[in-house]
Amino acid sequence: xxxxxxxxxxxxxxxxxxxxxxxxxxxxxxxxxxxxxxxxxxxxxxxxxxxxxxxxxxxxxxxxxxxxxxxxxxxxxxxxxxxxxxxxxxxxxxxxxxxxxxxxxxxxxxxxxxxxxxxxxxxxxxxxxxxxxxxxxxxxxxxxxxxxxxxxxxxxxxxxxxxxxxxxxxxxxxxxxxxxxxxxxxxxxxxxxxxxxxxxxxxxxxxxxxxxxxxxxxxxxxxxxxxxxxxxxxxxxxxxxxxxxxxxxxxxxxxxxxxxxxxxxxxxxxxx
Amino acid sequence: xxxxxxxxxxxxxxxxxxxxxxxxxxxxxxxxxxxxxxxxxxxxxxxxxxxxxxxxxxxxxxxxxxxxxxxxxxxxxxxxxxxxxxxxxxxxxxxxxxxxxxxxxxxxxxxxxxxxxxxxxxxxxxxxxxxxxxxxxxxxxxxxxxxxxxxxxxxxxxxxxxxxxxxxxxxxxxxxxxxxxxxxxxxxxxxxxxxxxxxxxxxxxxxxxxxxxxxxxxxxxxxxxxxxxxxxxxxxxxxxxxxxxxxxxxxxxxxxxxxxxxxxxxxxxxxxxxxxxxxxxxxxxxxxxxxxxxxxxxxxxxxxxxxxxxxxxxxxxxxxxxxxxxxxxxxxxxxxxxxxxxxxxxxxxxxxxxxxxx
Lengths: 272, 358
Hints:
The complex is a heterodimer of chains A (272) and B (358). With 272 residues, chain A is α/β, with parallel strands linked by helices. Chain A is 31% helix and 29% strand. With 358 residues, chain B is an alpha+beta fold. Helix content of chain B is 65%, strand content 12%. Chain B contains eleven helices and seven strands. Chain B has helices spanning 6-28, 35-66, 71-75, 81-107, 115-168, 171-187, 189-211, 218-236, 261-272, 305-310, 314-327; strands at residues 216-217, 240-245, 254-255, 279-288, 291-298, 332-337, 343-350. The longest helix of chain B has 54 residues, at 115-168. Residues 305-311 of chain B have low confidence and may be disordered. The A-B interface holds A 16-20, 22-23, 42-43, 45, 64, 66-67, 95-97, 99, 114-117, 164, 207-210, 213-214, 217 and B 171-172, 174-176, 178-184, 234-239, 273-276, 278, 304-307, 310-311.
């Protein structure tokens, strides 16, 4: 038990449209006067940074935002959250259109709001959050995080993959030469700013593609996402070792460096 | 003509048989002839004529397709009248000779109307019947093919219309706009009303563009873009700066309705919305030489290599199709990286002579 449990619950709002952010704050003030909105941000990167810094109990996340999407923010939060210091926040996703599987959100997220949000629906959401907070009060932060990660795994796994063709060869331009890299030879992919590092046994290449765009084009049986910025070919992993933080360190065949699997993906290595 | 099928082939056979019965009835009406005999001759000669001509037609047409020589008609089973004339002569020759022999064998005696005159008469009759039948079947096939084409074209048009409507009434845009409207109603009713007016004229234009597709003036096109961008400006606040530039002399030019809309939408959706600081969008119309150039420039995140390769957004494909349908090959759409970041999309087509600005 820490002091925060007795104080007023805190919330962060991540919504890029200023009028809607203001409206949500206003509506929340009316339907849940004790809730303190401690920050309102307009893009995904700020949402991640401010949530990690301020550790609110509740985060309202717009799904389509500049920078990181709401889902990317949730994924990064689960990977980077300081496990024992504070309970993982309750996430409420907000979108204008149910482009994602609503059922998955209803099952796996604390709540999922469709814009425009009417008063009755918001009251229902508030009641649900209050119940969840009361349940968490008795639980250890570790368990809260465990539970949140199970939910997120279910959510990220249930999102529809776009019907794109499988990639056989990666085209990587180096100067004015295009290298054709067979997908089999790729040991791992690593997101680096706006680029993607394609690492083979001999060398690595940079291509202009995001991991999110690449993932649906890969065979998920052979290429495992082990971190929000890393996808590795399963047969190229030599060993996996669990660290104290819940992360897993991977050694590779044909490459000296080690990779880190985040706790969100640690369950892939079953023997641990 | 429809694709050759066994059912259609048999149907033609039945119709040919019916025609032969008709001819036999006519012949039997002559003094001194009998119906049974006429029927046997007519059916055997006519049937064999039809079999050799129709069979020959399908054979020749398929050969022509194999050699890639017959054009679209051959693919539908029609080798052209040149081939058909030859087939009729040969087919009637075969049908007449074999049919007469067979009929004589069945009836056990030479034809009652024998002799040179009789033979010439029946031969001529067979040729005429074959030409009439061929012409009839050809016309019928053409009619069916035209009907099928019209049906396919209608279906494609409805599909395009629906896609156009879907792309322009993007649900994400619509519901976010409504959410903003809902927020404004309580706090700033006057602004809410202005926003609602914009939404109404945007929706009206979208619905009528997808229904009628009639051209409207470039000035009207810019007004609709202004509506859309005003809605986006309420949503994005300070993150969106807009400039519309339409010279007086080009205002009356006729353009397909909401042609620029997908380009502006792409600029917002893929260019400015993903950018944390937002940016600006410039829409302009210019006369360049004898051509009209419409340009949409944004200062957004720019084209991504991955996207251009893996998928063409429906918006661009739709603009291309509409340009091709309206201006044929003379119009051009280009999308390229803008100087200093962002994306630069242009549409160009020749200005009509009589609408040259004075």
